[in-house]
């Protein structure tokens, strides 16, 4: 599911909860204008709630940390997203386009009727009189009615003017937009019908407050109730359910305290937000020093633009592929990238002058495995700031034995990687530093989350990372995270950002 569809699904869930509450609790109250305002405002709020992300940000205690002599970390970048046709998105767009088309047709029909009659100003509005026997309605600043109704039933004109003065057409346009976005949600369509019924309640109430006789007005409603509803977007005199309108005119006014009923909706929405955005993590102090020479995870792909081969276009030796675009990946001495990381560790020598000066940092080295398995194109992509440390990493990787090359369509191809090397200095054995802290993560299931260090996947013990090198940690666990990082993110993702050197 794309991020846009995920946002719409979450907003639709909030809307369903909000509209269901209105239908169950507030629908039969006589707080017409208040309910109308809350219905519109709640609809807007339900579209803002999915934008609020609940995340846990962790900043570790960096005091008193003793670290190892040398740490080498490699990573494997996340897999590229699949390229299948987005059927779900296509289905959604077809439904939305159908609603838009129906709305355009309705507006066009309304405008055609308005243009067919004679027009004259009326209390700041435009009155259109027709010689035909058509149901009266209002749209924007225009009132449309038959000439016979205009001359015989002045209450009809007063009713339509109530709609115009209350700007009910704007409400209808807003709900039409909501129905376009949430066309698949039946409660969204029910809410639109309820809002239009509120418009009729509000117009009826305003007319009675102006002094019209309620009994004669109700008889007029019954008399004009016969007819076809022609204009779905317009506010019409005959549009609402007659029985409900008359019942509301006789209903005892609802207590103003009933407005507070909407407060009961807040815990429900808050709980829904929590369920959609779970994120938990903790940092626990260690009782003893546990940092040693690091375990070595897999290698990261380099973010280069590549050309994916096809059966009609077999790969050539000159082409370069990233790690995620091929299934038959390069291997090192019969093992995976972990074996290469351990080999680099055995060959790497911490420059004495840099170690004595306490210089440490992280260098990103890019290199390629050629079609014959040899290593080439070794270069520093991100420096530690110390030339000797950078050169040592380049020297060791350049001297790598041959790999078994990656294969595409049965042919060897050139594959490019990004390999991080982290240098860290431990205190002298004769002058040990006090025990510090390590970072541990505990999840409800006991499974380890995915760890992303400076944008690439980290496969090693979290406790092997020196907290003094960390700028911040961020914990994510939601649908968008799983979509971005794949199934490995189902237990959560720890994003670690190192301090700039």
Model description:
The protein has 14 helices and 17 strands. The protein has helices at residues 3-26, 32-48, 87-116, 147-152, 154-165, 168-181, 186-209, 214-224, 242-250, 265-276, 337-347, 352-356, 387-398, 479-485, and strands at residues 56-58, 70-72, 118-122, 125-130, 137-139, 142-146, 235-236, 300-301, 320-322, 361-369, 375-382, 406-408, 411-423, 450-453, 456-458, 470-476, 493-498. Residues 56-83, 227-231, 279-317 and 428-437 have low confidence and may be disordered. The protein is α+β, with helices and mostly antiparallel strands and 501 residues long.
Record the SSE blueprint:
Blueprint: H1 3-26, H2 32-48, E1 56-58, E2 70-72, H3 87-116, E3 118-122, E4 125-130, E5 137-139, E6 142-146, H4 147-152, H5 154-165, H6 168-181, H7 186-209, H8 214-224, E7 235-236, H9 242-250, H10 265-276, E8 300-301, E9 320-322, H11 337-347, H12 352-356, E10 361-369, E11 375-382, H13 387-398, E12 406-408, E13 411-423, E14 450-453, E15 456-458, E16 470-476, H14 479-485, E17 493-498
Parallel strand pairs: 4-6, 9-13, 14-17
Antiparallel strand pairs: 1-16, 2-13, 3-4, 5-6, 5-7, 8-13, 10-11, 10-13, 12-13, 14-15, 16-17
Helix pairs in contact: 1-2, 1-7, 1-10, 2-7, 3-6, 5-7, 6-7
